[in-house]
């Protein structure tokens, strides 16, 4: 396998640029630190609604996983990813995330009472419930308004239920729409996660290289500048380009990814750069020389 070839070639303990969210690799850029502080603030102050947005691949899910791993035992978490649908369907997603039984024949009132009883019982046991909704931009206006109604479970003095919404930039526009005026009023903390600048991109790449046992200099500064230009500073896109660049370098037995490797990679057309700098790598990108190098 190409990836195994380059990890062995460079002496890495594992691939430094996988696409799966991994809190162990988290790079604390200024933006990521602030976004995490907003999430922590929301939890600490029992904010009814906290909203964090960012471009695709900006690191939102990784931040959420880091947050969940750091929460105290007095917090009951329900994590919902890619929920879709309108009123009623969302409630079933919520019940499933919290491990609450929901039968197909149960009507909405029965399901909501089951949810409300769960939240109140958790509070009586000294815990409060936090619902994290990832990819929240997929929710309809009706579903978001239903989430606001969920917060009515809270008492006058104590917050029994908190909601954290994480999504792409369009989530901000949705929340700001006139139809969700009451929803927006309950948002206590919000933050938009921006792409990395060049300095941060350089530090990010070196951080991940050193995390797997590298020196941090396996990718030259000129190559990093090319990676930044092609990726727009979006971490997931940086990972895709770095991963391919290391494959190319190893196949040619180059110990350093230089600008020539990046030029070759770009010229081979293994990815498509969209208008907003999103990069989509084509499936099974295999460079002919890899077969020879692997023999």
Automatic annotation (TrEMBL):
GO molecular function: ATP hydrolysis activity
SMART domains on file: AAA
Stated name of the protein: AAA family ATPase
Cross-referenced InterPro entries: AAA+_ATPase, AAA_22, ExeA_AAA_ATPase_DNA-bind
Highest taxon of source: Bacteria
Annotated Pfam families: AAA_22
N-terminal signal peptide: none
Start and end residues of each AAA+ ATPase domain: 46-190
PANTHER family, alphabetized: GENERAL SECRETION PATHWAY PROTEIN A-RELATED (PTHR35894), PHOSPHORIBULOKINASE _ URIDINE KINASE FAMILY (PTHR35894:SF1)
